[in-house]
UniProtKB/TrEMBL annotation:
Start and end residues of each Pyruvate carboxyltransferase domain: 6-273
A molecular-function term among this protein's GO annotations: lyase activity
Record keywords, A-Z: Lyase, Metal-binding
SUPFAM superfamilies given in the database record: Aldolase
Lyase among keywords: yes
Family matches, as NCBIfam families: PRK05692.1 (NF004283)
UniProt cross-references to Pfam families, sorted A to Z: HMGL-like
Protein name: Hydroxymethylglutaryl-CoA lyase
Organism this protein belongs to: Kurthia populi
Membership in a protein family: Belongs to the HMG-CoA lyase family.
Amino acid sequence: KQPNAVQLKEVGPRDGLQNEKAIITTENKIELINRLSDTGLDYIEVSSFVHPKWIPQLTDAVDVLKGIDRKPGITYAALVPNLKGLERALDADIDEVSVFMSASEGHNKENINKTIAETFPVLREVVQAARAAGKTVRGYISTVVACPYDGYTEPSQVKYVADHLFDMGVQEISLGDTIGVAVPTQVERLLDELLKHYKPEHLAMHFHDTHGTAISNIVASLPYGITRFDSAIGGLGGCPYAKGASGNVATEDVLYLFDTMGIETGVDMQKLLHASQFMEQQMKRPLTSKQMAVFRGE
Ligand code: HMG
Ligand code: MG
């Protein structure tokens, strides 16, 4: 079973840049987002309103949001961990708020300094206030297949967290293979369980590509009716609180897959590659995507 169209959700300016050693200037982040806005993407996660000490790369979230040229029809989103972050996100007039937590205790504690049970009331306040302010809300669940601290994650644990997030008023859940270890059989086991309870249009897949399995995991998700996939330009990034996590699957590699399968995305490959090339110049290193290697003529 193959969908006619899918949505690519670009997370490079957030998930990509949060884990890169190089600090990109605010001006260059704005340039990157403006270039991405011109590729046909209709969803861009631009930054994070987290504690500046935890993620020093993204302290300029308000300036980035206020500096970009917002194109009609594009949703500009950001991560928000608590009410303090929401205040800044609303000040910058974010379109969509993304709350986040993990399916495993170990990663949740390392990443947001709370147990899973302590996290629910904090996120509930954020979701309710964001919805009251007229924003849509996305929820991330990290470590859905494995945790760098606790080992493998049972699908029932993911369902337990998802039930709480949907109950709070989250409209879509993005399922994160934070450390990029999943293989298709594990994705199938997870989706076999979750789709007994939820509709595929309320789920998105968020694959990191540490072991080179992200594209096969995306292909494995298609028969379940999933049509939303997170990816990062150039394959930038990772998670700073998950050792060994490498970048997200690269947007241009996901686009190659869908273009070649004849599945509509609305995204222009040449414009995407030029945005990726711009980031290579800023990072002063070749980016890891396969399509960039082809583009460079390697
Ligand atoms: P904490 O230290 O427990 O927070 O951090 P707290 O509530 O105890 O507050 C301590 C101080 O921080 C206070 O200041 C607060 O005001 C301040 P003080 O009174 O001491 O002067 N503070 C803030 N300042 C600015 N903005 C805020 C904020 N909140 C509190 N929002 C917290 C808890 C959640 C804030 C912290 O742990 C944090 O910021 N963590 C973020 C970690 C992060 O961003 N990780 C990466 C994103 S998740 C990811 O990458 C996975 C994903 O891609 C999916 C996947 O791949 O799986 C989404
Ligand atoms: Mg991630």
